[in-house]
Amino acid sequence: MEILTVDRTDDALLASLHAVVERSDAASRIEPDRRTVREFVRDMRFSFPGEHDEAAVALVDGRPAGMVRIWFPDRDNLDKSWCMLKVDPDHRARGVGSALVRWMEDSARAQDRKVLLAEVFVPVGQREDHPAGRFALDRGYTVSSIDIVRRLTLPVDEDVLAGHETRSRAAMGDAYEISVHVDGVPEELRQGVCDASNRLILDAPTGDVEFEPESMTPQDYETRLGFLRDIGVTKLTAVAVHRATGTVAAYTDLCLPPGDPDVVDQWGTLVLPEHRGHRLGMAVKVANLRALAAHDPRRAHVRTMNDEQNPWMVQINKDLGFQVVEEALALKKDL
Fold first, then answer.
1. Which of 114, 186, 246, 282 is the most core-located residue (most Cβ within 10 A)?
2. At a CB cut-off of 8 Å and minimum separation 6, what does 39 contact?
3. Residue 157 falls inside a structural domain
4. Residue 67: phi, psi to the nearest 5?
5. How many Å apart are CA 163 and CA 154, to the nearest integer?
6. What span, in angstroms and rounded, lies between the C-alpha atoms of 5 and 20?
7. What angle do CA 137, 123, 298 make, to 5 degrees?
8. What percent of the chain shows pLDDT beyond 90?
9. Which SUPFAM superfamilies does its entry note (predicted)?
10. What is the reported pLDDT for 314?
């Protein structure tokens, strides 16, 4: 077995790695992500502003058997790195994963990172004994928090949406304006959306891992939008703007991946602390679901993840009809 740095100019290698990732997820997830080869290749060649990444492949008899990718923030949270490990199911329990973990940890130490973060998906009720979780725990990783993966079947019942919409309007009064935007908010809202997004990592529960606010700028935001357009992802963003100040008080994102025409991915949702108590979280989610139904009524369900210690967002999702699918163990290792 060889562990080599991924040559991102090698189209054939990247296509082979896509197949490894697809097979790994199909064997490991109840609801795996599905991406086209084009999406995967473009993603492997993209670096979001403010971070860089490294990737390695495990070759067995000259063929990819697994891969790892590790991301390094460059402007904030400089003590941390995030990682993703995928091993072809035909090569598990043969040392491939362990070798890639060693490479990954050496890479993090070489860049003076003190904390390595990852996540492992497990079926409900198997937090303690699932093989993927045991693999991590046996190598010194600990569970810092647990996210619950939920699915909302589409279309959402109109009576459910209308009821939540009515209650949200009553709680908001005339103080807020709700709007929905396709493939990015207009220029005048971008700084506000960036400000809200940058504090998401602070406000969402993260167990015993402490974070600094992130540092996305409007220019970074445009770069990310360009990347999403390039791979064919449509993004719907609903915002609540405080009329008196022009502040983006709440936002939520839905993303429609081209590789899975049935799925919609719920990305970030945040209500600024000073604007909570007006049902803004529900208001922006309902607005986005209505926009989704109009934009692409063929989609079958929405996926989301929330920390189990986030009762406010969990309750919103339950009220909308989301059902539990699987769990994600948020893992950390002090290096």
1. 282
2. 231, 232, 233, 257, 258, 259
3. yes
4. -150, 160
5. 17
6. 16
7. 130
8. 93
9. Acyl-CoA N-acyltransferases (Nat)
10. 92
Structure tokens at 87: 């091993």
pLDDT digits (tens, 9 = 90+) for 137-195: 999 999 999 999 999 999 999 999 999 999 999 999 999 999 999 999 999 999 999 99
Single-letter code of the amino acid located at 70? I
The C-alpha atoms of residue 107 and residue 110 are separated, in whole angstroms, by 5
**pLDDT value, residue 309:** 86
> Which residues neighbour 218 within 8 Å (Cβ) at sequence distance 6 or greater?
187, 190, 191, 194
- Are the C-beta atoms of residues 286 and 164 closer than 8 Å to each other? yes
Helices and strands: H and E segment counts in the chain: 10, 12
Same domain? 207 vs 87: no
Domain total in the chain: 2
CA dihedral 210, 335, 309, 264 (to 10 degrees): 100
Q: Report whether pLDDT(12) > 90.
A: yes
Contact 245, 267 (CB under 8 A): no
| Bond into 297 cis (ω within 30) | no
CATH of the domain at 253: 3.40.630.30
Residue 335 lies in a domain: no
What does the block give as tokens for 55?
A: 């990737």
pLDDT per position as a tens digit, 239-297: 999 999 999 999 999 999 998 999 999 999 999 999 999 999 999 999 999 999 999 99
Q: What is the distance, to the nearest Å, from the Cα of residue 305 to the centroid of all Cα atoms in its chain?
A: 8
DSSP for residue 313: H
User: What does 240-285 look like in DSSP terms, one character per residue?
Assistant: EEETTT--EEEEEEEEE-TT-TTEEEEEEEEE-GGGTTS-HHHHHH
Enclosing domain of residue 32: 2-113
For residues 109 and 187, membership in a common domain is answered with no
- Does residue 96 sit in the same domain as residue 162? no
Q: What is the residue type of 247?
A: T
**Mean pLDDT in the chain?**
95
What are the E-state strand segments in the chain?
A: 2-5, 51-60, 63-73, 80-87, 115-122, 142-153, 176-182, 234-242, 248-256, 263-271, 301-307, 323-334
